[in-house]
Write a sequence for this structure.
């Protein structure tokens, strides 16, 4: 595995690769969720590039940019074991100049739900993903369904900018109790981890209701809200279609149920695709 930190060396190394490139962009603190993206990318491509870059432009003022977990050594080992060909870990200085041309999130889809709670987050995320897709030259890039809105926006960006890269959605990975894996789970104490389970429990309650024939979104949302009483604050519970338009009634095969909530000082998200 080559560890590359500068853009010129990445371009040189890429020139030596023959065949298809799968790409997994990450912010590090790798866990089994990331590993599942890498495994899928490895199985579908001749080469695998992974990036680790804690992208400053997608963090809002007062968010956890400074404290975001950084585990370079452990992450490198995981990538080595996963059969990564190139691990790209650029510096902020090499990725950005002072007066940057901006990629913006779409006016509606980029500013609802997480985009409303974290205004500007998706602009920064799309900006860095555009750079990383160009730099990696990927034929396919792998994104987890846990960040459902991110996945929808990246897919739209690839479509709107005619990027020669297929965006591949990957299933959410959970721990044995049901907690969706996230690098930010590292902030949680054991007690908070137990309370964080209310997110997946609320989604399980939603599943039960749907299986029992309930399709009214208001009813499902109020059932979920009751389960979520165990967390500090609920940012949103939403039921949308795959295009992120609010639904009044569940449409099987075209529905995402999303929840964002705070446990202690940690904001968690989870969702269910039905
Ligand atoms: O999902 C993430 O880890 C980040 O948003 C991404 C896609 C690596 C862009 O910084």
């Amino acid at each position: 595995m080559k560890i590359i930190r500068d853009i010129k060396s990445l371009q040189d190394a890429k020139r030596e690769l023959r065949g298809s490139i799968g790409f997994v962009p990450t912010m590090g603190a790798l866990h089994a969720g990331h590993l599942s993206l890498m495994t899928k990318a490895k199985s579908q491509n001749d080469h695998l590039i992974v990036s680790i870059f804690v992208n400053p432009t997608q963090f809002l003022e007062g968010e956890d940019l400074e404290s975001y977990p950084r585990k370079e050594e452990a992450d490198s080992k995981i990538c080595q074991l996963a059969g990564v060909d190139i691990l790209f870990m650029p510096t902020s200085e090499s990725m950005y100049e002072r007066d940057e041309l901006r990629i913006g999130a779409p006016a509606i889809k980029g500013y609802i739900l997480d985009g409303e709670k974290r205004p500007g987050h998706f602009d920064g995320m799309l900006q860095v993903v555009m750079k990383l897709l160009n730099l990696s030259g990927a034929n396919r890039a792998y994104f987890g369904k846990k960040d459902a809105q991110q996945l929808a926006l990246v897919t739209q960006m690839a479509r709107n900018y005619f990027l020669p890269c297929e965006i591949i959605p990957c299933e959410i990975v959970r721990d044995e109790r049901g907690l969706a894996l996230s690098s930010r789970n590292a902030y949680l104490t054991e007690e908070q981890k137990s309370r964080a389970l209310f997110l997946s429990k609320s989604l399980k309650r939603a599943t039960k209701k749907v299986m029992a024939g309930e399709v009214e979104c208001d009813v499902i949302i109020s059932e979920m809200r009751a389960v979520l009483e165990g967390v500090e604050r609920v940012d949103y519970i939403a039921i949308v279609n795959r295009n992120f338009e609010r639904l009044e009634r569940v449409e099987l095969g075209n529905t995402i149920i999303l929840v964002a909530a705070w446990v202690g000082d940690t904001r968690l998200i989870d969702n269910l695709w039905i």
About this structure: The radius of gyration is 19 Å. Residues 190-211 form the longest helix (22 residues). Residues 25-27, 55, 58, 125, 128-129, 147, 150 surround pantoate (CB under 6 Å). The chain has a mean pLDDT of 97.
